[in-house]
UniProtKB/TrEMBL annotation, chain A:
Keywords: Cell membrane, Membrane, Transmembrane, Transmembrane helix. Residues 9-73 form the MrpA C-terminal/MbhD domain. It is found in: Cell membrane. It comes from the Bacteria. InterPro entries: MrpA_C/MbhD (IPR025383). It comes from Endosaccharibacter trunci. Pfam families: MbhD. The chain crosses the membrane at residues 27-45, 52-73. This is DUF4040 domain-containing protein.
TrEMBL record, chain B:
Belongs to the CPA3 antiporters (TC 2.A.63) subunit B family. Its main location: membrane. It is a multi-pass membrane protein. Pfam families: MnhB. The lineage of its organism: Bacteria, Pseudomonadati, Pseudomonadota, Alphaproteobacteria, Acetobacterales. Residues 1-26 form the signal peptide. This is Sodium:proton antiporter. The chain crosses the membrane at residues 114-132, 144-161, 181-199, 219-240. It comes from Endosaccharibacter trunci. The keyword Secreted does not apply.
Automatic annotation (TrEMBL), chain C:
PANTHER family: ANTIPORTER SUBUNIT MNHC2-RELATED. This is NADH-quinone oxidoreductase subunit K. One of its GO terms (molecular function) is oxidoreductase activity. Its EC number is 1.6.5.11. Belongs to the CPA3 antiporters (TC 2.A.63) subunit C family. It comes from Endosaccharibacter trunci. Its main location: membrane. Keywords: Cell membrane, Membrane, Oxidoreductase, Transmembrane, Transmembrane helix.
Length: 93, 257, 122
C-alpha cells in the first residue's frame, strides 16, 4: 500500500520525461521507462493481468516500433534526399 | 498560429480548466474505499457460475465477451490498416531479406547470440504458459500474445534480420492474425447454431481451478492469443521491412536497424 | 503507515496524477515539432486513462481478483482491469497504425515537422 505513493510519482515523472525529451531517439528510452513504471504501478494496484500486458506491450514492443520507424525515416532520407530540391533539413537525425 | 501563441493559448486553457479539475478530484469517490457493485457481484458469483478462478478472464471472455469481439475487430482493423499502408508503398510481393544500405555489418558476439537464443526460448515458452493459464492464474490471450511477440524479438536480436525472417514467415502470422479473429467470431456463431444467444457458453465448465476449465472461454482465449501474437509480429515484420532497401546482389548477412 | 495514506491529500494523488498525465501529454501534443514525438505524447494521454481506471477500481487491503488459492473475498474491481487490459493491447496496434501514417507522410512530404506540412492539395 505504501508502494502506491512512490510509484504514482514515478509514473508522473517518467510521463513528464516522455513529453520533455524532444529528440525522438531519446524519447524512446523514456517511453520504455514509463512502460516499466506503469507495470510496477499496476502490480501495486493489484492488477497482475494488466501488469503483464503493459510490461510486454509498453516496455518492449512499443519502443521497438518507435526505434524501427526512426531507423526507416533515416534510411529513407539517405535515398530520397537527392530527389528533394527543397533541401529542408529533417529533425529526425 | 505561431508556436509561441499556441503555447500561451494552451496554458490559458489549462488555467481555466484547473479549478474544475481540482474540484472534481476533491469530490471523486474516496480512493480505495467506495462501493463497486458490478465488480463485487462478479467477484462473488463468477467462481460458482463460470468455474474460472481468474475474474478478469471471466469478464473478458464471458460476461463482456461481445465487447472483446469488438476489441478483436479493432485489433484486426488497426493491424490491417498499418499493413496496407506499409505494403501499399512497397508492393505486395514477398521480398528477400534485404540489408540496410550504407551500414557496416558488425558481427555479433557469440555471447549475444547465446543469450538471445536462451532468453528467446524462455520468453516464448513463458508466453505460451500465460496464454494457457488464462482461466486459473493471471494471464490470457492478450498478455500472452504480447509476451510471445516480445520473445520473438529476442530471435531478431540474436540472429539478425535474415535469421528472424526465416523464423517468422510472414504468411504464418498473417494466418494467425486472421484465424484468431475468425475463431473468436466462430465461437459466437457456434452458440447461435445451437439455438443459444451469441457467445453463450454451451460447453461444460469443467473443474474449478483446472487448466482446461471455462468451456467456450478456452477457445475464445486461444483465438485472442493467436490474433494478438499474429498482429504484433506482422507489425514488427512490416515495420522492419520498411527499413530495408532492395540492393541488387546484396549479400546474405543483414543487420539490425 | 495506512493512517498516513488515508490522509486526504494522499487519497487525492491518483486523480491528480491521472489529470497531470493527461495535461502534460496534451501539452506535448500541442507544442510538438516532430510527429514521432507527438505519438509518444499521445501514449502519455493514454496512460492517464489507465491510471484513472485502475485507481477507481482499487480498494484498500484487498487482493487481486484471482481466487486460485483462496476463496472469493475482499478483492479489487476486476471490471476496470478487463477494460484496461484490452485497451493496452489495442493501444499498441493503434500506435503502430499512426506510425505507419507518419512513415507515409515522410515519404510524400519529406518532413516530420507539423509546422512545415502544408495542407493537402485537391
Amino acid at each position: 500500500m505504501s508502494l502506491l505513493l512512490p510509484l504514482l510519482l514515478l509514473v508522473a515523472i517518467t510521463g513528464t520525461a516522455i513529453v520533455f525529451s524532444r529528440v525522438p531517439r531519446r524519447q524512446v528510452v523514456a517511453i520504455a521507462a514509463n512502460g516499466i513504471a506503469l507495470s510496477l504501478l499496476f502490480m501495486a494496484f493489484q492488477a497482475p493481468d494488466v501488469a503483464f500486458a503493459e510490461l510486454a506491450a509498453g516496455s518492449a514492443v512499443t519502443p521497438l516500433l518507435f526505434l524501427v520507424v526512426l531507423a526507416s525515416v533515416r534510411t529513407d532520407l539517405t535515398t530520397e534526399r537527392v530527389e528533394r530540391p527543397d533541401g529542408e533539413e529533417d529533425a529526425a537525425s | 498560429m505561431s508556436p509561441r501563441l499556441r503555447r500561451l493559448l494552451f496554458l490559458a486553457c489549462c488555467a481555466l480548466v484547473l479549478p474544475a479539475v481540482l474540484h472534481v478530484a476533491a469530490h471523486m469517490p474516496r480512493f480505495g474505499d467506495h462501493s463497486m457493485p458490478y465488480g463485487d457481484l462478479i467477484n462473488a458469483v463468477a467462481l460458482a457460475e463460470r468455474h474460472t478462478t481468474n475474474m478478469v478472464s471471466a469478464i473478458n471472455f464471458d460476461y463482456r465477451g461481445f465487447d472483446t469481439l469488438g476489441e478483436e475487430m479493432m485489433l484486426l482493423c488497426a493491424v490491417g490498416g498499418a499493413t496496407v499502408l506499409l505494403r501499399g508503398s512497397r508492393g505486395e510481393t514477398e521480398s528477400e531479406p534485404q540489408r540496410v544500405p550504407g551500414r557496416p555489418i558488425i558481427a555479433r558476439a557469440d555471447s549475444t547470440v547465446l543469450a538471445s537464443r536462451l532468453f528467446g526460448a524462455v520468453v516464448i515458452l513463458f508466453g505460451l504458459y500465460v496464454v494457457l493459464h488464462a482461466m486459473t492464474t493471471p494471464g490470457g490471450g492478450f498478455q500472452g500474445g504480447a509476451i510471445i511477440a516480445s520473445g520473438l524479438l529476442c530471435v531478431f536480436l540474436g540472429e539478425g534480420y535474415p535469421g528472424w525472417r526465416r523464423v517468422a514467415p510472414s504468411e504464418l502470422f498473417d494466418a494467425l492474425e486472421g484465424g484468431g479473429a475468425a475463431l473468436y467470431a466462430l465461437c459466437g456463431f457456434a452458440s447461435l447454431v445451437m439455438g443459444l444467444p451469441f457467445l453463450q457458453n454451451m460447453l461444460p465448465f469443467g473443474q474449478k481451478g483446472d487448466l482446461f476449465s471455462g468451456g467456450l472461454m478456452q477457445f475464445e482465449n486461444a483465438g485472442v492469443g493467436a490474433a494478438v501474437t499474429g498482429g504484433f509480429v506482422i507489425l514488427l515484420i512490416e515495420f522492419l521491412e520498411e527499413t530495408r532497401e532492395p540492393v541488387p546482389d546484396g549479400d546474405e548477412e543483414g543487420d539490425d536497424p | 503507515m495506512s493512517a498516513v495514506l488515508h490522509a486526504p491529500p494522499v487519497t487525492l494523488l491518483p486523480w491528480l496524477v491521472a489529470a497531470w498525465l493527461f495535461g502534460i501529454g496534451l501539452y506535448g501534443i500541442v507544442t510538438s515539432r516532430h510527429y514521432v514525438h507527438l505519438i509518444g505524447c499521445l501514449g502519455v494521454v493514454q496512460a492517464s486513462t489507465y491510471v484513472l481506471l485502475l485507481a477507481v477500481g482499487y480498494r484498500w487491503n484487498a487482493t487481486a481478483p484471482i481466487f486460485y488459492s483462496h476463496p472469493p473475498g475482499r478483492a479489487v474491481d476486476p471490471v476496470v482491469q478487463a477494460l484496461v487490459l484490452t485497451d493496452i493491447v489495442i493501444g499498441v496496434t493503434v500506435t503502430a497504425l499512426l506510425l505507419a501514417l507518419v512513415l507515409q507522410l515522410h515519404k510524400r512530404k519529406g518532413t516530420l515537422d507539423p509546422e512545415r506540412v502544408r495542407p493537402m492539395q485537391p
